[in-house]
């Protein structure tokens, strides 16, 4: 079992405070000046958690390199409108201007998502089967239908190939519980409820192994 992100939240905030990251983000977000271009905002606001090239090295923070522009813009809008909840992203996005969203999305969409390490190859192999075939017995659709081969995604369906396994696992559990509800037509909430914990962990392990080596 992979521990939920929420169990790390208190320690995470303390660690970030110790490193001065939260303070730095607060300064950067307090004045989203018009003079700042997307690269500057990405470096001063986003890099602390997601990395300068969008490849976060902390499994709890998602990689956003190579995500579709449309998907990134939607998530930023949802964070700002409160449709997607996050104690960390909420105040950061609230300080950005809506006109900053597309340039930021274009910047990170142009980066390449790097593959993560897969510790359990047997689990990842099972995840590959679920990703491509689903589970006919439980009515679980194949992930590839929306997220495409290699988890590359398409338009509103995000690139998930190469994403951190821990992050994917947590988001699937959040969809299942309803904690996250900004999916299109409730589709991911339905999918999550049809997945066993083993299937969630397996698909997450498989997807983490994809992306740019």
TrEMBL record:
Cytochrome c domain ranges (all copies): 33-112, 122-211
Cited InterPro entries: Cyt_c-like_dom, Cyt_c-like_dom_sf, Cytochrome_c4-like, Cytochrome_c_Oxidase_Subunit
Signal sequence region: 1-35
Protein's cellular compartments: Periplasm
Record key words, sorted: Electron transport, Heme, Iron, Metal-binding, Periplasm, Signal, Transport
Coiled-coil residue windows: none
Pfam family, one: Cytochrom_C
Translocase is among the record's keywords: no
Top-level taxon of the source organism: Bacteria
PANTHER family: CBB3-TYPE CYTOCHROME C OXIDASE SUBUNIT FIXP, CYTOCHROME C4
Name the record gives this protein: Cytochrome c domain-containing protein
């Amino acid at each position: 079992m992979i521990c939920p992100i929420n169990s790390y939240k208190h320690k995470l905030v303390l660690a970030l405070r110790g490193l001065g990251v939260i303070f730095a983000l607060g300064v950067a977000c307090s004045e989203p000046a018009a003079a700042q271009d997307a690269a500057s905002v990405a470096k001063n606001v986003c890099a602390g958690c997601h990395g300068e090239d969008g490849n976060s090295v902390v499994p709890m923070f998602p990689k956003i390199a190579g995500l579709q522009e449309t998907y990134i813009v939607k998530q930023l809008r949802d964070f700002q409108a409160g449709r997607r909840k996050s104690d960390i992203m909420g105040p950061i996005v609230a300080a950005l201007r809506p006109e900053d969203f597309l340039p930021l999305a274009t910047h990170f969409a142009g980066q390449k998502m790097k593959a993560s390490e897969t510790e359990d190859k047997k689990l990842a192999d099972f995840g590959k089967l679920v990703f491509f075939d689903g589970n006919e017995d439980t009515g679980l659709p194949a992930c590839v239908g929306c997220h495409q081969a290699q988890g590359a995604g398409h338009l509103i369906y995000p690139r998930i190939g190469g994403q951190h396994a821990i992050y994917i696992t947590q988001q699937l559990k959040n969809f299942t519980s309803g904690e996250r509800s900004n999916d299109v037509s409730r589709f991911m909430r339905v999918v999550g409820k049809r997945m066993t914990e083993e299937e969630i962990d397996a698909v997450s392990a498989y997807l983490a192994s994809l992306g740019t080596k």
